[in-house]
Specification:
Blueprint: E1 30-31, E2 34-35, E3 39-43, E4 60-61, E5 66-70, E6 74-79, E7 87-88, E8 100-108, E9 118-123, E10 126-131, E11 141-146, E12 152-157, E13 165-173, E14 178-183, E15 186-191, E16 211-214, E17 227-235, H1 241-250, E18 283-286, E19 289-294, E20 304-305, E21 307-309, E22 318-319, E23 335-340, E24 351-357, E25 369-371, E26 377-379, H2 389-402, H3 406-416, E27 429-430, H4 441-456, H5 461-482, H6 538-544, H7 559-577, H8 580-597, H9 602-609, H10 620-631, H11 634-642, H12 646-650, H13 671-688, H14 691-707, H15 734-737, E28 744-746, H16 747-761, H17 767-781, E29 792-793, E30 795-796, E31 802-803, E32 806-807, E33 813-814, H18 816-824, E34 833-836, E35 841-844, E36 850-854, E37 859-865, E38 872-878, E39 881-889, E40 898-901, E41 904-906, E42 914-922, E43 927-931, E44 936-941, E45 944-952, E46 955-960, E47 969-974, E48 983-985, E49 990-993, E50 996-1000, E51 1007-1009, E52 1012-1017
Parallel strand pairs: 19-24, 27-33, 35-39, 47-52
Antiparallel strand pairs: 1-2, 3-17, 4-7, 5-6, 6-17, 7-16, 8-13, 8-17, 9-10, 9-16, 10-11, 11-12, 13-14, 14-15, 18-21, 20-22, 23-24, 25-34, 26-36, 28-30, 29-32, 31-51, 34-35, 36-37, 37-38, 38-43, 39-42, 40-41, 40-43, 44-45, 45-46, 45-52, 46-50, 46-51, 48-49, 49-50
Helix pairs in contact: 3-5, 4-5, 4-7, 4-18, 5-8, 7-8, 8-11, 10-11, 10-13, 13-14, 13-16, 16-17, 16-18
Length: about 1000
């Protein structure tokens, strides 16, 4: 078949409130202008029924089907009429999906009725199908759904002509209640007002009972398809006509894919310029401001400035959207210039006068704080003796982790080294299957998770022993495998110990990423000393040679991402248990990487680290710097520096601008590919004291939280570029360019943002850092776990009437977010408290029932609270000592922050968004009581402020929906007191507005609306 040119998200051009242009590169990220996050499965049928998507939903061809050569598409699948052949595909990918689009090419050889292009469902009474020549009772091209109680919806079109290739697309748009059929890019039939729900058609409890057939009916009474098939796709989104037309047309473009222009607002509701936008409708003026910066460094212009409101309205500070240059040309010399911003929904244009001062040495703060070890902090029940959400979620993960089989996580490592598997060992699924190029990634997450579980389960010695055994078994197995690399298989045999001299596999003239049982190389003696991975070294070498991301044998999938997870997990085990083999294994791989990378020119490195997903290296810079800190071997720090993403960090090889100088160089890029790189930059600063690394991290955090953040704390989810895993193409335009139809807010991106946030706080104790940490922790990480199992979210959908999708309940098949979930949920206690490096100050960051054993001071601090179902917490001190206790005054605590010490009210000046210092010689039994009254407040989208989320204190409240929605839920509040329209029980955090229930997002498991269309009235 013809190979299409596939587009990826890349750095986008500077905007001045205008349009952007996508800089295209090769990769499998966007297919026909549609991001891969919207794609469930793709079967090209060019020789097999493998799924070309990264979801590994491989099909099975039954009976006598064969592959034939075709003039138009090359090799295609032929289903002869007398063969009774068809394709069955796994049902896992369609379960729980909101909407579906199914497309494919069919060459019909017979006009006989009763032939089925596809038929999906659990029975003949609950299914949906497309029959290209109709059925015995309904002629023509027929698409039909049979749902609950025999309800049927169908679309009828002229029958497909025979002996000709035709492209069929069927779209089940549940929120819009439409079923649409397209032929060759043209709408041919549609039914509206279809009251259907895909959940009715599948059995979610017994997946094996569902049938997904291509080429036959679920019922054996109908005819088999007599046709040729090519490129069958299943999408989880409702494709529009332009997208379908593009799929059709691109098939004839001789390898050149039509680039997809962004459709403004796409299928989101549009608002007229005259639509009142929250408090901005009462805004009369916005204060101009003055900002200073140093030559070479773009100014950090405040996102919020003071405004003046009419009619006695006391509105919040005003969000201003400022221009976001793509370089620092305006500030290269000392002087003064003015920039003009916009305020959404108004004609106001506030100005910022920028004064550029002469260049001086840019300083960065020193690390002042340290985290407590996980075994020093324990989670407690709340004041009522009930499990908190933290304990509830932790226990789901701890219990399931304890029941896992380490041999499943070692399976592909043994497979790569050609070693025999233990009896009854079973491989993992999803992204760790035989032919998946990312296999082994879950093992890295697993190493970290069991290390954290071991450190955190002192309350249960049996559990702790379980995790100790798992750690030892895993490490010893990985160590033994690593010792095979670069060593002769037999005494006197040939081998290659030099990592830089790894040859192609036996019988091959070049490197490839073939991991099939027939094609994988297992000649570990040629891999170089120290190598350890769940696949051979080819992917690392191919990356150096320019390979892109994708499913073909000439493509790769983020080899250094997987390696980072493994090395980090090994070091985690070393640090909690002292296992020397864990450190030795990590060192061996560090040496292997150093030997290869030290020889690469800078141009190659820049190319590698800016290749979508192929060059995703996770936090390899962090891992190598950490390895240096543990071993003091300078080669590891040198290697860490080779992972600098020069283009993002510094703009170019000359370090002209970039994040180090406050230039946004990450717009439109893959979010979770880059957040760990920033964490690594901060780790590099810790170990090298190069201030640019700190500025990279600090500037990135500020820009991300202010210009890319959704209300739950997630930071990715772009509609432009068309990828839910990317940052939006232009800062501060979430409504214009965000809310991807494929979902947004990748959960592992928030995991990494929280890690970055906590690390930054160790350098500068800004209240805004822990305000964000609290937001992301409560409203995304806690909200990402299923009600009755450790199943968890990948993308969290935030469109009207969305439903979270949870996966991996038994820890048998991991995506990236399933991996970070086992880490997040085994370390909840890690950021509740921090201490100063000299042990003279304590920071209380989060209000979580817990006990801190401050062993260095021989003191214990116990926190008792029902927070966030209570606006009160008590700290009880056991022991004696003179030190500062710094308590966080949340930004949302605008109704006051009240302190009692030993029952006596203290006069304090507490500023929301800061820390309050309490100092005295603390005595055994002293108590500190903190009260921070909650109130309702709105968090608007920066560029469409009437679309907003409702919070009560730190808690995001989600409307509990009963059916899919196309429009945002409309609510009206009193502009001077939004609580007037809200009834409910603050203790339960359950409220009603206009008869609709609102609950915390972290307790929402059904259909929800996180964003509302809000009108404020006097």
């Amino acid at each position: 078949m013809k190979k299409s040119t596939l587009f990826i998200c890349a750095v986008l051009s500077f905007w001045t409130f205008g349009t952007t242009v996508l800089q295209a590169q090769n990769g499998d990220q966007i297919l026909d202008g549609i991001g891969e996050t919207g794609l469930i499965a793709r079967y090209v049928f060019d020789g097999d029924a493998k799924d070309w998507s990264r979801n590994n939903l491989h099909g099975k061809i039954d009976s006598k089907a064969k592959f034939v050569n075709d003039d138009q598409f090359g090799k295609v699948l032929s289903l002869p009429v007398d063969s009774k052949s068809f394709v069955s595909i796994p049902a896992d990918g369609v379960l729980g999906e909101e909407s579906l689009s199914i497309t494919g090419w069919v060459y019909l050889r017979s006009a006989q009725k009763g032939q089925y292009f596809f038929d999906f469902g659990k029975s003949a009474a609950s299914h949906f199908f497309t029959a290209p020549a109709g059925t015995q009772t309904k002629p023509g091209l027929l698409t039909e759904i049979t749902g609950a109680k025999g309800t049927k919806y169908n679309t009828a079109s002229p029958a497909l002509p025979i002996n000709k290739w035709n492209h069929i697309a069927v779209v089940f748009n549940i929120p819009s209640k439409t079923v649409s059929t397209y032929v060759n890019g043209i709408l041919t039939g549609e039914t509206k007002n279809a009251e259907l729900n895909l959940e009715q058609l599948f059995d979610s409890k017994s997946v094996e009972k569902n049938k997904l057939f291509i080429g036959k009916s679920i019922s054996d009474e109908d005819s088999y398809l007599n046709a040729k098939l090519h490129d069958f796709r299943i999408y989880r989104i409702s494709l529009n006509q332009k997208q379908i037309s593009r799929i059709f047309n691109n098939a004839f473009r001789d390898g050149e894919e039509e680039e997809a222009p962004e459709e403004k607002n796409a299928d989101l509701p549009s608002f007229a310029k005259t639509t009142p936008q929250l408090y901005n409708q009462y805004l009369t003026s916005v204060q101009d401001i003055k900002v200073e910066t140093t030559a070479g460094y773009l100014p950090r212009i405040p996102s919020y400035v003071k405004g003046v409101y009419r009619d006695g309205v006391q509105g919040p500070e005003v969000r201003v959207i400022w221009p976001s240059p793509k370089d620092n040309q305006e500030v290269l010399k000392a002087g003064q210039y003015t920039v003009t911003g916009i305020v959404s929904g108004t004609d106001l244009k506030p100005k910022a006068v920028i004064t550029v001062k002469e260049a001086k040495t840019s300083k960065a703060p020193k690390r002042k704080l340290e985290a407590f070890n996980l075994d020093q902090v324990s989670l407690n029940k709340d004041n009522d003796g009930q499990q908190t959400k933290f304990i509830e979620n932790r226990n789901k993960f701890i219990t399931t982790l304890a029941a896992t089989d380490p041999d499943s996580f070692l399976y592909m490592f043994r497979n790569a080294f050609g070693q025999q598997q233990p009896k009854e060992a079973e491989p993992l699924g999803v992204w760790d299957t035989q032919e998946t190029k990312l296999r082994g990634h879950a093992t890295g997450h697993y190493l970290t998770a069991i290390a954290q579980a071991y450190a955190s389960t002192g309350y249960d010695k049996t559990l702790q022993a379980n995790f100790a055994d798992k750690m030892q078994y895993l490490v010893h197995t990985l160590y033994d495998l690593s010792q095979l690399s670069g060593q002769p298989k037999e005494v006197g045999g040939k081998f290659v110990s030099d990592p830089a001299a790894v040859p192609p596999g036996p019988g091959k003239t070049d490197y490839d990423s073939d991991l099939s049982a027939e094609g994988i190389r297992t000649d570990y003696w040629n891999w170089g000393k120290g190598f350890i991975s769940a696949y051979p070294p080819d992917q690392f070498i191919m990356l150096e040679k320019g390979a892109t991301y994708g499913g073909q044998k000439t493509q790769i999938w983020a080899p250094y991402y997987t390696l980072h997870k493994i090395m980090a997990g090994l070091m985690d085990i070393y640090e909690v248990s002292g296992n020397e083999k864990a450190l030795a294994t990590a060192r061996g791989m560090g040496d292997w990487v150093y030997a290869r990378m030290k020889k690469l020119p800078k141009e190659t490195l820049i190319s590698m680290w800016n290749r979508y997903i192929a060059g995703e290296f996770g936090g390899m810079n962090e891992a190598m710097a950490r390895l240096y800190r543990i071993t003091k071997d300078p080669h590891y720090l040198e290697t860490a520096q080779l992972f600098d993403n020069i283009k993002v960090f510094y703009g170019d090889a000359n370090h002209s601008h970039g994040l180090a100088k406050n230039v946004d160089t990450f717009r439109g890029l893959h979010a979770n590919q880059h957040i760990p790189q920033i964490m690594g930059a901060l780790e590099m600063y810790r170990d090298s004291d190069a201030s640019d690394y700190y500025h990279v991290a600090d500037n990135f955090w500020y820009k991300t939280v202010n210009d890319y953040m959704y209300s739950i704390g997630g930071v990715a989810g772009a509609r432009n570029p068309a990828n839910a895993e990317c940052f939006i193409s232009q800062p501060a335009t979430i409504y214009e360019n965000g809310f991807s139809s494929g979902g947004q807010n990748e959960t592992c991106a928030t995991y990494n943002m929280l890690k970055l946030t906590g690390d930054l706080f160790l350098y500068e104790q800004k209240g805004e850092l822990m305000d964000y940490y609290e937001r992301g922790l409560y409203n995304h990480i806690l909200a990402s776990v299923a009600q009755d199992s450790p199943a968890n979210t990948y993308h969290v959908p935030l469109r009207p009437g969305s439903v979270k999708q949870f996966g991996n309940p038994h820890m048998t098949g991991f995506t990236c977010c399933n991996g970070t979930a086992i880490e997040s949920n085994t370390k909840f206690q890690n950021s509740i408290y921090f201490k100063s490096a000299d042990n003279k100050a304590l920071y209380v960051n989060l209000y979580v029932p817990s006990t801190l054993k401050w062993t260095e001071k021989n003191m214990t601090i116990t926190q008792t609270t029902d927070f966030p179902k209570q606006d009160f917490t008590r700290l009880t001190i056991t022991g004696n000592g003179n030190f500062d206790i710094n308590v966080r005054v949340p930004q949302w605590a605008s109704k006051g922050f009240f302190v009692k010490i030993n029952g006596k009210e203290e006069k304090v000046k507490a500023e929301p968004g800061s820390y309050l210092t309490l100092n005295r010689k603390w005595k055994d039994g002293d108590t500190i009581e903190l009260r921070m009254p909650f109130e309702f407040h709105l968090e608007p989208v920066m560029d469409q402020q009437n679309v907003a989320s409702l919070f009560y204190g730190p808690v995001l409240l989600a409307a509990q929906e009963t059916e899919p929605r196309k429009e945002w839920r409309k609510v009206t509040f009193d502009v001077k007191d939004i609580s007037k329209s809200i009834q409910g029980d603050p203790k339960k955090l359950e409220f009603t507005i206009d008869g609709v229930q609102y609950k915390p997002f972290y307790e929402t498991y059904g259909r929800h609306s996180v964003y509302l269309d809000v009108t404020l009235k006097q």
